[in-house]
Amino acid sequence: MKLVRYSAGAVSVVEEPAPSLPPGGLLVRTEACGLCSGELMAWYMDAKTNPVLGHEVAGRVIESDDPRFPVGCRVFPHHHAPCGSCAECRRGAFVQCATWRRTRLEPGGMAEIFAVAPENLADTHRVDELRAVDTALAEPLACVMKSLRQARWEPGMRASVIGLGGMGLLHMLALGPDAAGYEINDERIAHARSLGLSIGSRDEPARYDTVFVCPGSQSALELAFSLVAPRGTILLFAPFGTAPTPEGLIDRLYFNDVTLATSYSAGPDDIEAALELLRSGRITAESVVSDFVGIDDMPAKYQQMKRGEILKAMVRFDHSP
Predict the structure, then answer these.
(1) What angle do CA 227, 232, 233 make, to 5 degrees?
(2) Cβ atoms of 93 and 38 closer than 8 Å
(3) For residues 15 and 69, is the Cβ–Cβ distance under 8 A?
(4) Burial status of residue 55 (CB atoms within 10 A of its CB: 0-12, 13-18, 19 or more)
(5) For the segment 34-89, what is each residue's pLDDT rounded down to a tens digit?
(6) Which letter does DSSP use for residue 40 in this model?
(7) CA-CA to 15 of 20 to 30 Å: which in 6, 51, 138, 144?
């Protein structure tokens, strides 16, 4: 079968044997798999050992050892699933669970066939009513739903989003029409406006109760400080890696009573919220995916997305509807 592997800043399509059905688990034929912006971060990916890309995934079960997921049904499996019983899970910190960190799809989602271990079935969902391309948004949208919770955002609060890539757009769509977006790429601004989203003014910046910072960059965080209201919240949606942080960060937070919150990945409750939003039809793949491609196109699309030339790429496999 074909799959996409990462190595030293580039990706390649290779042929490898398909995985076998794990006892108690599933074997899934992939229908759609999105390219995550996190998979573009070299410092993050280089720490892994030649990984297979893909966790924003949907597919059809072709072999099953669990009656809840019969052959032929469409599923969304989260690539990480918590145990549900440890101290971290009991307090809702699912992404800190040791089982959550250990679990994964085999070999990865950007492969023609992948295996779902029985541990991952704790956060695997049957989604026959959703299109494959929409189902593949469940994981990134779940990360957004957690972001809103971590920021303690509630409807009626003034909110803004910095960075209108795929994840920024998902934030805007989840927040609703009153949120304002900030972006320096003219094409992304035009796309956001085509979706009916509002663009904030840099010349006369407003003040917001909550500012969601999607890029992990010093300039984005500096902009957030200029936008956040006293006693407001800045939510960091991405890690900074090797990027520097603004000078005097702690004192600037302290003297303005600003809360700095973070949001990493998503747990089962966030997946449920994301699937509910997808079922409502408010968010579709076409809202955030600019390039639907075949698996052989991924090496070129990976580099285009990394350079910011395209918004988001998603592989549609030949057998997907």
Answers:
(1) 90
(2) no
(3) no
(4) buried
(5) 999 999 999 999 888 889 999 999 999 999 999 999 999 999 999 999 999 999 99
(6) G
(7) 138
The token pair that represents 199 in the structure block: 């663009």
Cα–Cα dist 280/56, whole Å: 19
**Please, which residues have CB within 8 angstroms of residue 64's CB and are 6 or more apart in sequence?**
21, 26, 27, 70, 71
Whole-model pTM: value is 0.95
Q: List the beta bridge partners of residue 229.
A: none
DSSP state of 92: T
Would you list the DSSP string of 194-220?
HTT-EE--SSS---EEEEEE-S-SHHH
Ranges of beta strands (E only) in 87-158 are 113-116, 124-126
Place of tokens 């399509």: 13
Instruction: Pick out the chain residues at pLDDT < 70.
Output: 319-321
Token pair for 95: 């992404």
Taking CA atoms, 173 is separated from 145, 154, 192, in Å, by: 11, 14, 10
At 321 the pLDDT is 47
What lies within 8 Å, CB to CB, of 259 at 6+ separation is: 232, 233, 234, 253
Q: Is the peptide bond before 107 cis (omega within 30 degrees of 0)?
A: yes
Contacts for 165 with CB less than 8 Å, ≥ 6 apart? 37, 188, 214, 215, 311, 312
Per-residue confidence (pLDDT) for residue 222, from 0 to 100: 95
Domains of the chain and any CATH numbers: 2-142+265-316 (3.90.180.10), 152-262 (3.40.50.720)
Cβ atoms of 31 and 134 within 8 Å: the answer is no
Going by the DSSP 8-state scheme, the letter that residue 49 receives in this structure is S
